[in-house]
Design goal:
- The protein is α/β, with parallel strands linked by helices.
- It contains 15 helices and 18 strands.
- It has helices at residues 34-37, 48-53, 55-61, 96-108, 127-135, 201-217, 261-274, 290-294, 308-311, 317-331, 350-353, 357-369, 399-404, 455-458, 465-478, and strands spanning 28-32, 65-68, 72-73, 85-89, 112-117, 147-148, 171-175, 181-186, 221-224, 280-283, 304-305, 339-341, 374-378, 489-490, 497-503, 509-515, 532-536, 550-555.
- The strands form 4 sheets. Strands 11-10-9-5-2-1-13-12 form an 8-stranded parallel sheet. The chain has a 5-stranded antiparallel sheet with strand order 14-15-16-18-17. Strands 6-8-7 form a 3-stranded antiparallel sheet, with no helix packed on it.
- Helix 6 runs parallel beside helix 7 and helix 12 packs parallel to helix 15.
- The longest helix has 17 residues, at 201-217.
- Residues 1-17 have low confidence and may be disordered.
- Bound molecules: alpha-D-glucopyranose (GLC).
Length: 556
C-alpha cells in the first residue's frame, strides 16, 4: 500500500518564509480539515489538490502555518483518525505526489506545514492488526496492541471496566482463527481504532520511522493526536465505576496522562532536532490542569500543547483572567509558549458555543490574538461560521453519534459532544454547487444561505469577519507586542472587563480591552488619552463606553 516518491529533496523556502529562530513561539496556525476545506476533483469530499489551490488564500489571510488533519490511508471510521497506512495518502484525498506538491507550494508561499500523527491507535484495517487477528493468541503481532482474555467463566466479559470515549465498553471480542469466541482488544475510541501497546519496541520503532518519513517529505511539524493516551497503567487496572467520560481531562486516569508518555516525546524531540529549520511537535493532551500540560512541553519534549482549559472557559472576564494567568504561569518555568484555541474539529464552533453570536465570537478572537504565544484558528472561524445544529441524522458520520446516540454525551455544550456540526464544508462562493467548495456536492449538507458567509461575499467588506481576521493578523505581524513574550500586564478595569497591556521590543505598547459583561463599560484610565483604537471587533470608534461583547486593540 505504501507509495514512494522518486524525489525527496528538501523543499525550497519561499522569499517570504519566516526564517526566525523559534518561529513557532508566536505562530498563528490554521487548521485545515481536509475533507471539508476544498474539493479539487468534484466528488463532494475535500482533498489535497483542493487544499493546495486554496493556499494563496491562507497566505493572504496572514497565518504562519497550516495544520492538516489526517489524510492517510484510512477506512474513515473516524474521519481519518483511524489510520491503515501511515505512509500513504487515502485515495479520496489524493496521493503522495499531491502531498509533496502541497508542502512545496506552502513553503513557496511562506507557510509552514504541520501534519497530524495518530500514534495512540491504528485502524483495525492496519496490516499489523489484521495479522494479529489472523495469527491468533500468542502471535507477537498481538503484543503490538492490547489483547486480553475476557473475564468470567467463559471469558465473555471485558477484561476491565474501561469505557470508550465514544460510548460503550472500550473492549471488543474477536473470534479465534478457528471461529470460536476468542480474546478481547482495547480501543479507547471506536472499535475500528485498536490501541497500540507502547511497551512494545516494534511500535516505538515504527513511529520513529514514520516521523522520519514525513520529516523527509519536508513537513515542519506534527500535531500529535491523543498524546496523553499512549501509555496505560501497568496491569490495566479497573476504574471501579461508570461515567468515566465525565472524568476526561479532570484527573490522571489509568489510560490518560500517565507519566510514561514523556519518555516517548523525549525520543521524538531528538529526531525533530536532527532536522533543520526547527520542526515542531504539538501535543493534543487532555490533562487535569495547566501544570500537567506543561510537562509535555519541557525543553527536551514537545514544543507546544493545546490549551483546552482556555477553550473550555466561559465568556466571563474573571474566569478568563484566571485561566490566562494559570496558563502563562505554568508554561513560564518550562520556557514553552502558551497556546490559545477557540475552535477545532471536535468542539462546537465558538460563535455558537460562547452563546453571544457573531459579536462575541469576534471579540473572543481579538482577545485570543492579543495574548502572548501561539494561536490556532480552525477553518471557517475566520468566516464567522456558526455550528450547524440541525443536520439530519441520516447525514451524520461522526462515530460518537452512532455509539452515544442522538443525545451524545449529554454535556449540554450545544451539540452534546457530537462533531459533524463543526465539520460542514466551507462556503467559498455566494451560490452555486456546494457554494464553491467543489464542482460536485458536499459530504455533509450545507445549510441554505451558507453562501452569505462565503469568502467571496466577505472579501473586501471592511465590516466582515474575514476582513477582521485579515486586519488582526496583519497587525499581529506588524506589532511585536502582540504574540511575543510570556506575560501580560493586567490593568484595573470595571467588573466584566478584561484589560491588559502588551509591550513590544520596538517600544510600542498596546492595550487590549474586552467587555464580557451585560452593559456597556466606561474605561477611564484603561485607554490612554492621546492613544487610538488600532482595531475593534465591532466598529466601535473608541469614544464613549465599550459596548457589550466588544474588544479593542488600543495603541498608546
Ligand atoms: C482526537 C481527534 C478526534 C479523534 C480522536 C481519536 O481527539 O481530535 O477527532 O476522534 O482523537 O483519534
Amino acid at each position: 500500500m505504501t507509495q514512494h516518491l522518486a524525489d525527496r529533496t528538501q523543499p525550497t523556502r519561499g522569499p517570504g518564509h519566516d526564517q526566525r529562530r523559534d518561529w513557532w513561539r508566536d505562530a498563528v496556525i490554521y487548521q485545515v480539515y481536509p475533507r471539508s476545506f476544498a474539493d479539487g476533483d468534484g466528488d463532494g469530499m475535500g482533498d489535497l489538490a483542493g487544499a493546495r489551490e486554496r493556499l494563496p488564500y491562507l497566505a493572504d489571510l496572514g497565518v504562519d502555518a497550516v495544520w492538516l488533519s489526517p489524510f492517510y490511508a484510512s477506512p474513515q471510521a473516524d474521519a481519518g483518525y483511524d489510520v491503515a497506512d501511515y505512509r500513504a495518502i487515502d485515495p479520496m484525498f489524493g496521493d503522495l505526489h499531491d502531498a509533496d506538491a502541497l508542502i512545496r507550494e506552502a513553503h513557496r508561499l511562506g507557510l509552514r506545514v504541520i501534519v497530524d500523527l495518530v500514534p495512540n491507535h491504528s485502524s483495525d484495517r492496519h496490516e499489523w492488526f489484521q495479522r494479529a487477528l489472523r495469527e491468533g493468541p500468542g502471535s507477537p503481532l498481538r503484543d503490538r496492541y492490547h489483547f486480553r482474555p475476557g473475564r468470567g467463566a467463559s471469558g465473555d466479559l471485558p477484561p476491565n471496566d474501561w469505557e470508550s470515549i465514544f460510548g460503550g465498553p472500550a473492549w471488543t471480542r474477536v473470534p479465534d482463527p478457528d471461529g470460536t469466541p476468542g480474546e478481547w482488544y482495547l480501543h479507547l475510541f471506536a472499535p475500528e481504532q485498536p490501541d497500540f501497546n507502547w511497551d512494545n519496541e516494534a511500535v516505538r520503532d515504527e513511529f520513529r520511522s514514520v516521523l522520519r518519513f514525513w520529516l523527509d517529505m519536508g513537513v515542519d511539524g506534527f500535531r500529535i493526536d491523543v498524546a496523553h493516551g499512549l501509555i496505560k497503567a501497568a496491569g490495566l487496572p479497573d476504574m471501579g465505576h461508570t461515567g468515566q467520560l465525565k472524568l476526561l481531562g479532570t484527573q490522571v486516569l489509568p489510560f490518560f496522562d500517565q507519566d510514561g508518555v514523556h519518555e516517548i516525546y523525549r525520543s521524538w524531540r531528538r529526531i525533530l532536532d536532527e532536522y533543520p529549520n526547527q520542526r515542531i511537535g504539538v501535543a493534543e493532551a487532555w490533562t487535569p490542569n495547566a501544570g500537567r500540560t506543561a510537562l509535555y512541553v519541557r525543553p527536551d519534549e514537545l514544543h507546544q500543547a493545546f490549551n483546552f482549559h482556555y477553550l473550555n472557559t466561559a465568556w466571563d472576564a474573571a474566569a478568563l483572567r484566571e485561566v490566562i494567568d494559570a496558563s502563562l504561569d505554568s508554561m513560564r518555568p518550562v520556557g514553552a509558549p502558551t497556546t490559545w484555541v477557540l475552535s477545532n474539529h471536535d468542539v462546537v464552533r465558538h460563535r455558537t458555543r460562547l452563546g453571544g453570536g457573531i459579536a462575541r465570537a469576534r471579540a473572543a478572537t481579538l482577545l485570543m490574538l492579543a495574548l502572548p504565544g501561539s494561536a490556532y484558528v480552525y477553518q471557517g472561524e475566520e468566516l464567522g461560521l456558526p455550528e450547524v445544529t440541525d443536520l439530519p441524522d441520516e447525514a451524520r458520520q461522526d462515530p460518537a453519534f452512532f455509539r452515544r446516540g442522538p443525545h451524545g454525551d449529554g454535556s449540554g455544550d450545544g451539540q452534546d459532544g457530537l462533531r459533524d456540526g463543526c465539520r460542514v464544508p466551507i462556503p467559498w462562493a455566494a451560490d452555486g454547487t456546494s457554494y464553491g467548495f467543489g464542482a460536485g456536492g458536499s459530504w455533509l449538507p450545507q445549510p441554505d444561505g451558507w453562501g452569505a458567509h462565503s469568502v467571496a461575499v466577505q472579501t473586501g467588506d471592511p465590516a466582515s469577519t474575514l476582513e477582521l481576521y485579515r486586519s488582526a493578523l496583519a497587525l499581529r505581524r506588524a506589532h511585536a507586542a502582540l504574540g511575543a513574550g510570556d506575560g501580560v500586564e493586567w490593568l484595573d478595569a470595571p467588573a466584566g472587563v478584561l484589560a491588559f497591556r502588551r509591550r513590544g521590543a520596538d517600544g510600542v505598547s498596546l492595550v487590549c480591552a474586552v467587555n464580557t459583561g451585560a452593559a456597556p463599560a466606561e474605561l477611564p484610565g484603561v485607554l490612554t488619552a492621546g492613544g487610538h483604537a488600532l482595531l475593534t471587533s465591532d466598529g466601535w470608534d473608541g469614544t464613549g463606553p465599550l459596548p457589550v461583547d466588544t474588544a479593542v486593540w488600543w495603541q498608546e
